[in-house]
Task: structure prediction
Amino acid sequence: MSTVKKDSKIILVGSGVFGLSTALHLASNEYTNITVFDRLDSETQRFTLLKGADTASADINKVFRAQYAEKKHYQDLAFQALEIWQKWNRDIHLLPEEESKKFTSLQLLDMCGTLKIDYIFGWEEKASKENYIKEGLEALRYDLDDPAELKRAKAAGYGPKLEVALQLKNSRIPQLVGASDSSSGILYASRCLQYASCLCRSMGVKFILGGCKGTFKEYICDSDIKGIITEHGKKHFSDLAVINSGPWSTKLVPELSGINEAAADNVLICKIPDSRRDLKVKYSSKNFPMLAWKSGHSREHERLGGLFLFPCMEPEGYMKIVIRQTKYTNPEVLEDGRFPSLKRQIALRLSTT
Ligand SMILES: Cc1cc2nc3c(=O)[nH]c(=O)nc-3n(C[C@H](O)[C@H](O)[C@H](O)COP(=O)(O)OP(=O)(O)OC[C@H]3O[C@@H](n4cnc5c(N)ncnc54)[C@H](O)[C@@H]3O)c2cc1C
Result:
């Protein structure tokens, strides 16, 4: 690979969170010749699942968290990212209204907190707690079975968000344990990508999106990779080509087999009708937390484990439930005989009932 200079031609394949984030960081570091390719016309689809963007990143919302059990480096990265998300939340509100409407005029990160409940604390929860204590961050979490912590949580405004757990404990599950993590929340993923692509464009990043012109087919190679050829046969020479194609990456870079494998979870999105204002208020992130039942790898294989209920997304009224219990893979045989799990096109099933 030739040495990359500030004006080197850089191609990024994929406009998901990794592609856009790579573009943004390169552009912020004064690399001036960046082009992002994608098989989807992601900007027209507004990075939105319900408009046909079948990518991992184009989701209505995602969990943002800093508690990663023993993985302290993830915790540190999350707190670094938090500063950027908070800056973006502020920057959006400083934009002229017409400009902000192009992608979103709403916040990107909502620090609504996560309420983790279970019959027992898994080792991950204990390790996360220890890490927070070591770092002096213990004030950011509240244990449900400690009256002093409960008092502190209520004083910090988390009272309504603990109701669901306290009701369960006082009625059906007396042995229930739980913790409220105020250092977590939800990211409105599609809106985040819309904003990130807007920032990329403002820094001169070019996009070739959608159909054959945006779809990577093969590399231009001699002794080294010299660029890419897209589905419609056009050659794009570059000094550096970076594959950010998420679960498709293993097809484009077969060496990733065994490292990068596609796996699908069960996701259910329902819409609260506009007429049910009461439900929208009840499940609003102002009153309802991100709810995690039996979370953490050691707990999610239990019955109904790994269940996440997201608060209502406003103004649309979407609520999302993810169950991380069963993972689905899609092994495909590659030319070299390897059979990694690759991304499969999804068929969206929309119901109006
Ligand atoms: C159901 C689900 C829930 C998740 N929840 C969370 C969560 O709550 N919190 C969290 O932090 N993470 C979560 N993740 C993980 C996170 O979403 C992914 O790690 C992340 O979005 C991956 O981003 P990416 O850019 O690598 O891939 P993608 O978003 O899949 O982007 C890859 C892009 O490459 C493009 N592409 C593919 N092939 C080609 C080609 N041949 N030519 C051109 N373009 C191509 C695709 O069209 C796509 O736009 C979740 C993942 C899933 C699936």
Q: What stands out?
A: The longest strand covers residues 318-328. The chain has two domains: 10-110+188-256, 114-183+264-328.
